UniProtKB/TrEMBL annotation:
Organism in which the protein naturally occurs: Parnassius mnemosyne
Keyword annotations of the record: Hydrolase, Metal-binding, Nuclease, Nucleus
Family affiliation: Belongs to the HARBI1 family.
Compartments it resides in: Nucleus
Database matches in InterPro entries: HARBI1-like, HARBI1_dom
Protein name: DDE Tnp4 domain-containing protein
Amino acid sequence: MDIVTRWRGSVHDSRIFRECRLKQRFEAGAFSGILLGDIGYPCTPYLFTPLLNLTTPQEERYNRSHIRTRNTVERCFGLWKQWFRCLLRGMFGDIEIAKKTIVACAVLYNMAIDMREDVFSGERDSIEQYSSEPIVQRYIAPSIRGNIRRRQFIETHFQ
């Protein structure tokens, strides 16, 4: 849906998200759903993160569900990189060619999914690479509105 190839080298996911159009569209109310992010993202009304200090069974169910859902996305990225090995090992050389290559790989992968190609073959072999535990990254203080919305979501859907 949205791919950002603006920076050379390693850039934290939260910075990329902070500066992408998808975030702007969520903030403008273009979508009614929610996104899931790891603990490296701030909790907002449209982007939910895992809870750090679980105190209720509902919170535990929320975190388990959150982690399982995010792992599906992480596996998808892993499979994408396996399909296009240049993404797995990194690209060197002209930055503009690298950007176009990354976007082309994303387009081709999405086309394969749309055409129902077997993009998930071999997934069972690679699934062990991805833990069911959250990746702990630096903590960013969550917003109050995000916490309130997440709390309402948990109380509504995880009773």
